[in-house]
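Dear Dr. L.,

I hope this message finds you well. Following up on our conversation about the binding site, I have prepared a predicted three-dimensional model of the protein together with magnesium ion. For your records, I am including the exact sequence and ligand specification that went into the calculation, followed by the C-alpha cells. Please feel free to forward this to your student if that is useful.
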Amino acid sequence: MTEPGTSRAATLRIAGRGHAVLADPRLNRGTAFTHEERRALDLVGLVPPGVLTQDDQAERSYAQYLEQPDALARSTYLTALHDRNEVLFYRLVRDHLEEMLPVVYTPTIATAIMRYSTEFRRPRGVYLSVDHPEDIECSLRASGLAAEDVDLIVCTDGEGILGIGDWGVGGIDIAVGKLAVYTAAAGVDPRRTLPVVLDVGTDRRELLDDPLYLGNRHPRADRDAYDAFIDAYVTTAGRLFPRAILHWEDFGAANARRVLDRYRDRACTFNDDIQGTGAVNLAAVLSGSRAAGIPLAENRFVVFGAGTAGIGIADQLRDALVSTGLSAEQATARLWCVDRYGLLTEDQRDTLRGFQAPYARCASEVAGWDRDDSLPGIPLAEVVRRVRPTVLIGTSGQGGAFDEPIVREMARHAERPVILPMSNPTELAEAVPADLLSWTEGRALIATGSPFDPVQFDGSTYRIGQANNALIFPGLGLGAIAARASRITDRMLRAAADAVAARSIRSVMREARAAMAPRPRPGKMRALFAWPIR
Ligand SMILES: NC(=O)C1=CN([C@@H]2O[C@H](COP(=O)(O)OP(=O)(O)OC[C@H]3O[C@@H](n4cnc5c(N)ncnc54)[C@H](O)[C@@H]3O)[C@@H](O)[C@H]2O)C=CC1
Ligand SMILES: CC(=O)C(=O)O
Ligand SMILES: [Mg+2]
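The resulting structure of the complex is given below.
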C-alpha cells in the first residue's frame, strides 16, 4: 500500500486482512482504499463501493467537524477520527493547524482530561501501574513495537496537568496531545511514538470517589515506591527501546526536577515544562527585548509562580544573561521570583523548595519592602513597585493575578512592557490580552500560553502570539531523532529558543513592512510570535 500524503511511494507491509485492517487506525484508509487495495486486503464488500480521494475525505470530515456544537464535542470528534483513521486525522489537523490546535491541545485538552473517565471511548497508549511494576515490560511490549521502532515516548504521572493539577490516569491525554503536536507540527512519525501514563494513584478526592474513575483508586504512592517505579520505567523503556527520547510532561513540582536531574545525564531525556517552557519563554524575551529596544542584559525580570515552569524559565534566562557577559551572580540578581508566599527570600526556611533556593533574595536587601501578612511575604504588587520590571512572566496558574494596578504600575516605568501570562488553560491566564493592551495604552508586548483571539484596540488589530512550549518541543524532538542524539543538552535548548526568536522577529518585521511602516511602531506591534510551522 502506498502512503498518502508522501511524494515518495513508501510501502507498508500489512499482515492483517479484512476487518483487522479497518479496525487498525494506523492502516485504515476507509473509503479511500483503491479497488486494488481492497482486493489485496480482502476489503471488497466491507466498505461502500465508491472510492474517495483523501481530499474528498478531508473535506467531508472538516464539514462534520464544523457541525460539532462546542469545543469538547469537536475534541471528541477528532479523537474518534484519530482512533479510526490516523492518516486522515493528521491530514485534517495539519490542514487546519491553527484552528484545531486549541482543540487537540490547550485549552480543550484540559476539559477532556478532567472528563477522561466519563467520556472514555477506547484506550490509547500504554498504562503503567505503580501497583504492578512487574508488568512494565509486558505492557510496553504489548505496543507491538520492536527495539528499533520507537523514536519518542511522552510520559506523564498526571500530577501537574497544565495548571489544573492532579487528574490521575486521565493525564494520558496530555501525552497523546503532545504527540499529536509533534506529528502535526514537525512531521514526527506517529507510528514510532508512544504515549505513556505512569499511574501512581491520585490525591484528588473527586476521582477516588467516582465509581467510573479508570485509574488506581488510592492516594499517590510514597516517595520510595514512586522512585522505584520511575527507575523501573526508565530502565525498561531504555532496554526495550534504546533509541527512544524520553519526554517528561506535567509532573508535580516535587518530582519534576528530581526526575530530570536523576536521568538527564543517563538517557536522551528532557522535561518539557522545565526546559521546553524555559526555551519558549527565552524566545519571547529575546524578540520582546529586541522590539522594546532594550539589550537583554538590561532587563529586569519578575517571574510569578516559581514552580516547575517558573524556575525552568529563570534558569534559561540566567544562562542567557551569562552568555551576554554577566557573571552568574549578576545574572541571578536580575531575576525576582514570586511564589505563593511572596517574593522568594532566603529567610523562608520552611517553605523555600530546593530548586527555588538559587533565586531567593537576601532578606536584608528587601528589609524595608511592604509585606502582606496573609501570605506572609512580599506580594507581587510590591515587587513590581520596587523592581520596575521590564518583563513580567506568569506561570502561577492564578487567573487574573496580573491585575490593573500591577500592570499600570509596570507600564509607568517600561515604555514597552513585555508581559507573558503563560499559564494554561485559558481561564488561568494571569491576564487577558485585551485588558493588557487597554491598561498599557497598546504598549504591552504580549504572548500567552493558551491561544487568544485577535484584539481590536485603538483602531488596530493585534494578533496575539503564543508562548507555549509547543513552539519548541516538536522541532527539538525532530532534531534529536534525526541526529540520533544521545542527550538533550542546554545548548540544543538555546538553539531552539534562538530559532523561534529569529522567526518571530522576521514575522514581526514582515508585518511591519506590510503595514508600510519602515519599522515596528510603538503600539502597532501585531505579534510577538507568528506560529512558525508550515
Ligand atoms: N505556556 C507554556 O508553555 C507552559 C505553561 N505552563 C503553565 O504554568 C503554570 C504552572 O505550571 P507548573 O510550573 O507546571 O506548575 P507548578 O505547580 O510546578 O508551579 C506553579 C507555582 O505557582 C505557585 N503558586 C500557586 N499559587 C500561587 C499564588 N497565589 N501566587 C504565586 N504563586 C502561586 C505554586 O506554589 C507553584 O510553585 C500552569 O498554568 C501551566 O499550564 C507550564 C508549562 C508550559
Ligand atoms: C503547555 C504545557 O506544557 C503546560 O501548560 O503544562
Ligand atoms: Mg506541560
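In brief: Residues 243 and 354 are 32 Å apart (CA to CA).

With kind regards,
A. P.
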